[in-house]
Amino acid sequence: MLQVKLDTGFNIEVDFMIPGFFKRFLAWAVDAAIIWAYYLVGSNVLGSALRNDGSHIWIWVLFGLPPFLYHLLCEVFLNGQSVGKKATRIKVISADGGEPSISQYLIRWMFRLADFPLWVFVAVFTGALPWWCTIFLFAGLACILATPYSQRIGDLIAGTILIDTRNRTSWQDTVFTELSEDYKPRYPQVMQLSDKDINTLKSIINSVSKSGDYDLSMRIADRIRSRLDISSDQDSLDFLQTLLKDYNYYSTN
Q1: Burial class (CB within 10 angstroms; exposed 0-12, middle 13-18, buried 19+) of 151
Q2: Structure confidence by residue, pLDDT tens digits, 162-190
Q3: Could you give the C-alpha distances from 192 to 97, 184, 196, 216, 251, in angstroms and in order?
Q4: Using 50, 70 and 90 to split pLDDT, how confident is the model at 99?
Q5: pTM for the whole thing?
Q6: What is the per-residue pLDDT across 205-229, written as a single tens digit (0 to 9) for each?
Q7: How many angstroms separate the CA atoms of 222 and 21, rounded?
Q8: Could you tell me the CA-to-CA distances from 84 to 47, 139, 150, 210 in Å, in that order?
């Protein structure tokens, strides 16, 4: 499986797994089945309830909006995942390793037709368009196969990539840490760090605790001390854990 190295807020590269084509196709198939079921059930219900004289065209337009906006709304409100992506444990992230902005989701969605224009396929085989238009049908697939990180056209323009979340539990983690009532913070400078920095910090703490890679914690601690101009006599892991606790303290008080 392909990997991509992304630079975190502390200039430390983190590996993310790139999902294979089969997982991407399976996610697409799940989403397509949901949209197809919506159309099938909804059109039968509306068709029997409404007259077919065109007077209810606006109702049919409204009926078509949810599947039309399906991928955009899912990725915005489900943190980079559609139902199919959740089922296959893949996720859209920004190429810099953070959560995509709404504008990135929007750009990605706008170029979905360019990636897999089903309407071209239908039009060609019904005779509405010449056969050479089928080259557009495979533009998205060719882009996925040709780019190093399997990005489709929308991903390239929006600056996003698709990752496998099974190996990156930090995407499901939160920065919440329970504190004692008498906890006293030590480093107010921690509030200079961004949300992305704090999420990365907790991920690193969890990784070091499980693997015992204290060289990583020492490198991170040294860079944070330098960046925030902090003088501390704590060992590297204790220092990072204290920063996380301090962030929780200052964020809730």
Answers
A1: buried
A2: 988 775 444 334 556 667 878 899 999 99
A3: 19, 18, 12, 21, 12
A4: confident
A5: 0.60
A6: 887 887 888 888 898 899 899 989 9
A7: 40
A8: 28, 22, 18, 31
Joined together, the tokens standing for residue 223 give 């860079």
Number of other CB atoms surrounding residue 63 within 10 Å = 17
Position 159: which residue type?
G
DSSP state of 185: -
Contact 8, 14 (CB under 8 A): yes
Task: Give yes or no for residue 233 having a pLDDT over 50.
Answer: yes
Place of tokens 């704090």: 198
113 against 119, higher pLDDT: 113
pLDDT of the residue at 216: 85
Bridging pattern class, strands 3-7 and 90-94: unpaired
CB atoms near residue 51 (< 10 Å): 8
The answer to whether residues 136 and 56 touch, using CB atoms and an 8 Å cutoff, is: no
Type and span of the H or E element at 63: helix 57-68
In whole numbers, what is the pLDDT of the chain averaged over residues?
Answer: 79
Starting at the earlier edge strand, list the strands of the sheet with 13-17. 3-7, 13-17, 160-164, 90-94
What's the rounded Cα separation, in Å, for the pair 58 and 192?
A: 51
DSSP of 113-166: HHHS-HHHHHHHHTTSS-GGGGGGTTHHHHHHHHSTT---HHHHHHTEEEEEGG
d(CA 129, CA 124): 5
**Overall size of the chain counted in residues:** 253
Token pair listed for 172: 């499901």
Tokens at residue 25, please?
A: 């196709």
